[in-house]
Predict the 3D structure of the following.
Amino acid sequence: MIEIEHLTKRYGDTIVVDDVSLRVDEGTITVVVGTSGAGKSTLLRMINRLVEPSEGRVLIDGQDTMAIPEDQLRHRIGYVIQGYGLFPHRTVAENIATVPRLLGWDKRKSAARVEELLDLFQLDPVEFAKKFPHELSGGQQQRVGVARALAAKPAVLLMDEPFGALDPVIRSKAQDDLVAIQRRLGTTVVLVTHDMNEAFQLGDRIAVMDQARLLQYATPAELLTRPAEAFVEQLVGTAERPFRLLSLLKVREALEPGAAEGEPVLVTDSLRDALSRLIWSGRETLPVADTSGALVGRVSVQGIVAHGRSVP
Ligand SMILES: Nc1ncnc2c1ncn2[C@@H]1O[C@H](COP(=O)(O)OP(=O)(O)OP(=O)(O)O)[C@@H](O)[C@H]1O
């Protein structure tokens, strides 16, 4: 768990982070969004003390980060930046083993960890371990960057625009992979982005910043239905609201009894995907199957549309 308490950063007379407090629960993803210059990266860097706070403190699992030596702190907290910061003259395996080497892990343990991570990120160790960063695609470099940050099994992973350089298709896959890996490892993630779609796709909670202040810290659904200020409402995108809401809800939440014709949707699909399928197939209803393939009911256009309305 990360507890941020009254964090403030000043450069001269300019306040770039103004009295921000928030708590990130263990094993969750918090996304920090906001306009350019809002103070997002500065807030993130105060967590691992790449930037020293002017006021306030950060506790990680109850321990004040000021009480942890800086090098130890950085080894305990993974950090991924846009462009991934891979060492160009080191191989993929050497890049991933950076922190284990600094921590003095023996060669065999390091090599086993590198192989485990390459497998986890679907990069065949035989093919990729000895490659250099310039021999990889952008998506592969991104995965190596995250693998490197996770090498010493940090409980906390900080990510600053980690998908910014990827094209939309690879970006979406990389986001899905991150969530899958994060759920599996139970890592606590704080991720900075200016992309609202990314925030809604990844965030268990979203922190909205503007001009150094934290305007709202809430679940994606709360941000949509109860924006704290006009700025939050605007940032969330008024035209997008119903669709964002539907993408957060699952078919199981709009399940109706009865049968229907057509190719079934899954209980675990989002209502947005189900509506898309309904519109495209020209049907008013579609059957719903559970994950074992058994039919459990149906969904209707009318039922889904009702879920996209903000009125409870
Ligand atoms: N070392 C520094 N000295 C002076 N001002 C700084 C320093 N670092 C950041 N700033 C200023 O602090 C403000 C917040 O910067 P920060 O990088 O945290 O914003 P951000 O929300 O991450 O922006 P972006 O999305 O554009 O990266 C900016 O106005 C920036 O110019």
